[in-house]
Design brief:
NADH Oxidase; alpha+beta; 225 residues; single chain
Length: 225
């Protein structure tokens, strides 16, 4: 693949908040997960486990768990719906298996912070591969990071029979959509690239960071302008 083609794929990957109920074939789901298997991982541990939820009953139960922890009264006008994945026909939860730790290099194995960093980084890269693979198939996705909130994580693990010690990284909502994302606001390349030794003045000031978010660059449930 040429760079321009890859860049187009990266630009094509967008988050959807609304999905069509159209079923997604297992072949597409397995292609997405197959791509994720090739992501780099710390000491080639490949700590990932992918749980795919297609059954309507299970998806409803997961949505009920989220709804319990996101009361509708907390969703103010102008805020994104935390249950924006409720129409997605497929949910994929990415878990990490911490039992790989004894086989890590000593600096990783013996230090909690180092191990958590390596495990999380490995899962994050794999998850991003999933999103790019989905985009290549003409499908849309959404990150549902609240799956890792302790109360939600615990209930979903019990529901699905996932080992308690597994680390919940994130959940992907997957499907087709008619949703048209708003234009993605991007910081210019010249602003984010720094070579060699840097001066503090080369980086954004506190005021510039605040200005970035005041212009409608939203995160999570921040107002969308």
């Amino acid at each position: 693949m040429e760079y321009d083609s890859f860049l187009e794929l990266a630009k094509k990957r967008r988050t959807s908040w609304v999905f069509k109920p159209d079923p997604i074939p297992n072949e597409s789901i397995e292609k997405i997960i197959d791509a994720a298997r090739y992501a780099p991982s710390g000491f080639n541990s490949q700590p990932w486990e992918f749980v795919v939820i297609k059954e309507q009953e299970l998806r409803d139960e997961i949505r009920d768990i989220f709804a319990k922890h996101f009361p509708s009264k907390d969703v103010k006008p102008g805020m994104k719906d935390p249950l924006g994945f409720k129409t997605a026909p497929v949910l994929i939860i990415l878990y990490g298996d911490p039992r790989v730790r004894p086989f890590a290099p000593p600096p990783v194995q013996k230090n909690d912070k180092n191990f958590q960093f390596v495990l999380t980084s490995s899962l994050a890269i794999s998850f991003q591969y999933m999103h790019l693979a989905a985009a290549s198939l003409g499908l849309f996705t959404r990150w549902v990071s609240a799956i890792s909130w302790p109360a939600i994580e615990r209930e979903v693990k019990i529901l699905l029979g996932v080992p308690e010690e597994f680390v919940t990284y994130d959940m992907m909502a997957l499907g087709k959509t008619d949703f048209i994302p708003s234009e993605k606001k991007m910081r210019p390349l010249s602003e984010v690239v720094h070579y060699g030794r840097c001066d503090r003045s080369e980086f954004r000031s506190n005021e510039e960071v605040k200005a970035y978010f005041s212009q409608g660059y939203s995160i999570g449930n921040a107002p969308v302008k």
